[in-house]
Design a protein that fits this description.
Strand order of the largest sheet: 1-8-7-6-5-4-3-2
Oligomer: single chain
Bound molecules: D-xylitol-5-phosphate, zinc ion
Low-confidence stretches: none
Number of domains: 1
CATH topology: TIM Barrel
Distance between the termini: 11 Å
Largest sheet: 8 strands, parallel
CATH architecture: Alpha-Beta Barrel
Number of helices: 8
Structural class: alpha/beta
Mean pLDDT: 97
CATH superfamily: Aldolase class I
Length: 215
């Protein structure tokens, strides 16, 4: 089954509750957390996750684009995140492993994300610690960028490894996903699709969510 995770980065932050209710037919709510250091942009943090938790039953998929995430993962778990994803480039391998263990010890699902330039090999040492692998299909930091089809080989390899190891992880893609590119990523093995602009710019949001499922 293909899951859709609308990114609230493309929502109206002054009307977040309304914009979250508009995507109630989706599977997750994707929250992009940026610190202005790991990426050249700043978005929202722990209090916003706490507030969103109160207005939706959907699982919260929190994508941390922050430096040394091990410092904050427990706060995001306590704030109500269901999936917490950290970037493999954001700290040493030891600290990333520690962050993933902390997330799981809070009963939440742990994810690891890869920037476009990062090889899939970077996740090998920690693959058994993650419940989800996020392949960025744009450079993290901003919504509305162009999809990078060259990431598909990364996705395919990760799917093979995950199956070989019997890990049964979710494979998520993020950036430039629309009714055309969704087909490419689904064919390459993705089963969780993040989409910001293509969902929130749609006239008929429930229809767009159905389209992104590739049907
Ligand atoms: C980018 C974020 C994405 C972003 C995707 O750094 O991680 O989640 O919101 O936006 P679109 O779907 O517009 O490419
Ligand atoms: Zn994201």
């Amino acid at each position: 089954m293909i899951k859709i995770a609308p990114s609230i980065l493309a929502a109206d932050f002054a009307n977040l509750e309304r914009d979250i209710s508009r995507v109630s037919s989706a599977d997750y709510i994707h929250v992009d957390v940026m610190d202005g250091i790991f990426v050249p942009n700043i978005t929202v943090g722990i209090p916003v996750v706490e507030s969103i938790r109160k207005v939706t039953e959907l699982p919260l998929d929190v994508h941390l684009m922050i430096d040394r995430p091990v410092r904050f993962v427990e706060h995001f778990c306590d704030a109500g995140a269901d999936i917490v994803t950290v970037h493999v480039e954001a700290d040493t391998e030891e600290n990333i492993r520690k962050a993933l263990e902390l997330i799981r010890s809070h009963g939440k699902r742990a994810g690891v994300a890869l920037r476009p330039k990062t090889s899939e090999r970077a996740v090998l040492p920690i693959l058994d610690k993650c419940d989800l692998v996020l392949v960025m299909t744009v450079e993290p930091g901003f919504g509305g960028q162009t999809f990078m089809p060259e990431m598909m080989s990364k996705l395919q390899l990760l799917q093979v490894w995950s199956r070989q190891w019997g890990l049964n992880q979710e494979l998520e893609v993020d950036g430039g996903i629309d009714p055309v590119t969704c087909k490419t990523v689904i064919e390459s093995g993705a089963n969780v699709l993040v989409a910001g602009s293509s969902i929130y710019s749609a006239e008929d949001i429930p229809f767009r969510i159905r389209q992104l499922r590739g049907k």
